[in-house]
Write a structure and sequence with these properties.
Distance between the termini: 78 Å
CATH architecture of the domain at 146-323 and 503-521: 2-Layer Sandwich
CATH superfamily of the domain at 146-323 and 503-521: ATPase, nucleotide binding domain
Number of strands: 35
Radius of gyration: 30 Å
Number of helices: 14
Largest sheet: 7 strands, mixed
Shape: globular
Strand content: 25-35%
Helix content: 25-40%
């Protein structure tokens, strides 16, 4: 680099106590930004660069910098300090850059220095006028509704501008932010990239993977299985739900997710320069009702009016077909960081119909990482003749190395995994160092890919379809980039997957398309017909499960059933609701109990109720019980006394009487799942 002629600022006077400073216009021998990136990426990523100049300045001189292309167009402006000075020129350390520089360095993969404030406009050289009376600050202009992909590993926001969806970049210049929340050593709550930065050094106070836990009970089998797999502490919330201990504070998973959503919201507001208050938020297609309600609650905690909860595969299909008016049958294979979803959609112009869906909420990139970690630990044991001691910080370092090796093996055949000082026994340090081959990775993770294809087979067969009936296959989610995944999917469907959507951005962009459609209320716009991902039904005596709303029922949906009292003088009625596909209630997910209290005495069958199950367009459930004798109705009031295990045990005992609700706990499940209660 060389500086062009200009008027340098006068250096500070000796003895003045100020650093000397100069202003430089630096003309680069580059005609485009791509040339700048190619030539100077190495230095700029480290916030440094070298200027060739005849008139050098001493070390510690402050430099105000205008970096320009050969054409004279500014690349960015910044401020730096001379750290080396010699006959050939000066090396600068950047201290701050403008917004263009911030985005430029972040785009190179570096960490930009602080953002410089724009200089204030100079005051006019006139006589000062009396200050006018203070006017109230106008409310910021409302932003358009945005779409948010709330991911297990990363989250993103997108918006439709000029008819096209695009992803809003983060403060660091990335298109996604890590879905990570942490407490620093100073007790400060941090989110996103800063939180990920402390994952390796303070894993016990860094929460990731919250998407797998949200909306689940602490004592549920899936949460019990996860308790030992995360370095942070999973605890029981005050209402029996899974929660986390973060520093000295216990937080619900809704609160954790709300912090991520708040960060995404603020990034969008900064970029759009307007207040964001409305959003469409995506969830895995195979999320149950509790989980969808919990995500809606997280959005509300983040200050968002959640216009719609949208399934992720559906969002990806919206991004794929937006503006193209296709007439095709599409299969969406969505393998993300923590969940797997598969959906079949039929696209007819602006009509998008989901015809079948399925998934596994405990199958994703973290499971691929885990099998690699287990393999590395077995190599450690073989080499050092001892089991890994189990230090959580060291284990997190190994997990990070396993993830990096997995990603690298998508581009190469072999990767050397090195993690120094992972253990110390009797003062002797031990390293983990071993090669990992792509063939080994394929052998380790092949069974996980087979699990995804089994779900694909179920989704197709549920509608009598064959792989050959599919026109396009969309691969979505970061883990779908794995060569093994693409190859197995190609073999299963007999055709190559489409490359028309970005695996990391398609879901957010589809959510933005949905948001734009809702906001515009265009009568000729997008029409979406979704389906119920998992059957909903009631528990029966003996532990049986009766399906009321079948899987793949189109949404919205309404179905009624009739129940009557089964005993003389029965004073209450219970409808215990589960979601799942098993014939046994205990194998399904417990959603809640609709409890109808204070029935007047009467013989068996004297009180008959119409029970109405209603699903919203986003698969959220409400239940109403109407007494056909009195006309009284009760909507979505749940028993608060029972844990899922107690309910399942009572169903197993067919002679067990219905339990009465405890008045002082009334509304516990309603508060947990966000239900509203109504009596008439």
């Amino acid at each position: 680099m060389s500086d062009s002629p200009g008027t340098p600022a006068a250096p500070g006077k000796p003895g003045s106590g100020k650093r000397p400073s100069i202003g430089l216009q630096v003309r680069l021998p580059c005609s485009s930004l791509d040339e700048v990136k190619a030539r100077y990426a190495g230095e700029l990523k480290e916030n440094r660069f070298f200027i060739r100049t005849k008139a050098t300045r001493p070390k510690d001189t402050l430099v105000r910098l205008d970096l320009q292309l050969a054409s004279g167009d500014t690349v960015f402006r910044g401020a730096g300090v001379v750290i080396e000075s010699g006959a050939a020129g000066m090396r600068l350390q950047l201290l701050g850059v403008d917004e263009a520089g911030h985005a430029f360095i972040a785009g190179l993969g570096g960490t930009p220095p602080r953002l410089l404030k724009r200089p204030a406009a100079p005051a006019p050289k006139t006589q000062p006028k009396p200050e006018p009376k203070a006017q109230p600050t106008p409310e910021p202009e409302a932003a358009p509704m945005i779409g948010i992909d709330l991911g297990t590993s990363n989250s993103a926001a997108a918006v439709v501008r000029h008819g096209k969806p695009f992803v809003i970049p983060s403060r660091e210049g990335y298109n996604t932010i890590p879905s990570i929340v942490a407490v620093s050593d100073k007790g400060k709550m941090i989110v996103g990239h800063p939180a990920k930065g402390q994952l390796l050094i303070n894993p016990t106070n860094t929460v990731y993977g919250a998407k797998r836990l949200i909306g689940r009970q602490f004592e549920s089998p899936v949460v019990r299985d996860l308790r030992g797999r995360f370095p942070y502490q999973i605890v029981q919330g005050e209402r029996g739900e899974a929660a986390v201990q973060l520093g000295a504070k216990q937080m619900s998973l809704q609160q954790i997710s709300a912090l991520v959503l708040t960060e995404v919201k603020q990034i969008a507001e900064q970029w759009l320069k307007a207040k964001v208050s409305r959003a469409v938020i995506t969830v895995p297609a195979y999320y149950n009702d509790n989980q969808r309600q919990a995500v809606r609650e997280a959005g509300e905690l983040a200050g968002l009016q959640v216009a719609r909860i949208l399934s992720e595969p559906t969002a990806a299909a919206l991004a794929f077909a937006h503006g193209r008016r296709l007439d095709r049958r599409v299969f969406v294979y969505d393998l993300g960081g923590g969940t797997f979803d598969a959906s079949v959609l039929e696209l007819h112009g602006s009509v998008y119909e989901v015809v079948s869906t399925g998934g596994d909420t405990f199958l994703g990139g973290v499971d691929f990482d885990k099998v690699v970690v287990d393999h590395l630990l077995s190599r450690f044991k073989e080499r050092h003749k001892m089991a890994f001691p189990g230090d959580r910080v060291a284990l997190q370092r190994i997990t990070d190395a396993a993830e990096r090796a997995k990603i690298a093996l998508s581009e190469r055949q072999e990767m050397e995994v090195k993690v120094p000082f992972v253990a110390a026994v009797e003062g002797k340090p031990y390293d983990l160092a071993t090669p990992l081959l792509r063939t080994e990775l394929v052998a380790l993770t092949g069974h996980l890919v087979d699990r995804t294809l089994a779900v694909c087979e179920q989704v197709l067969s549920a509608r009598g379809l064959k792989p050959s009936d599919i026109d396009d296959i969309l691969l979505v989610g970061g883990q779908s980039r794995m060569p093994l995944v693409r190859e197995r999917v190609r073999q299963f469907f007999g055709k190559d997957p489409s490359r028309a959507v970005h695996p990391d951005e398609a879901v957010a962009m589809g959510a933005a398309v949905m948001a734009h459609s809702i906001e515009s209320a265009d009568i000729d716009g997008l029409v979406l017909v979704d389906v119920l991902p998992i059957s909903i039904g009631v528990g029966l005596p003996g532990g049986r499960f009766r399906k009321i709303l079948e899987r793949n029922s189109p949404l919205p949906h309404r179905k009624a059933m009739t129940l009557a009292t089964t005993r003389d003088d029965q004073d209450s009625l219970e409808i215990i609701v589960f979601q799942g596909e098993s014939d046994r209630a205990q194998d399904n997910e417990y959603l809640g109990t609709l409890h109808v209290p204070d029935l007047p005495p009467g013989p068996r069958g004297s009180h008959e109720f119409e029970i109405v199950f209603e699903l919203s367009p986003e698969a959220l459930l409400s239940i109403t019980a109407r007494n056909q004798k009195t006309g009284h109705t009760l909507t979505s009031i749940f028993s608060t006394k029972d844990t899922p295990e107690e309910v399942k045990q009572r169903l197993a005992d067919s002679s067990a009487p219905a339990a009465a609700a405890e008045p002082e706990k009334k509304g516990w499940l309603r508060r947990l799942f966000g239900r509203k209660e109504q009596r008439t």
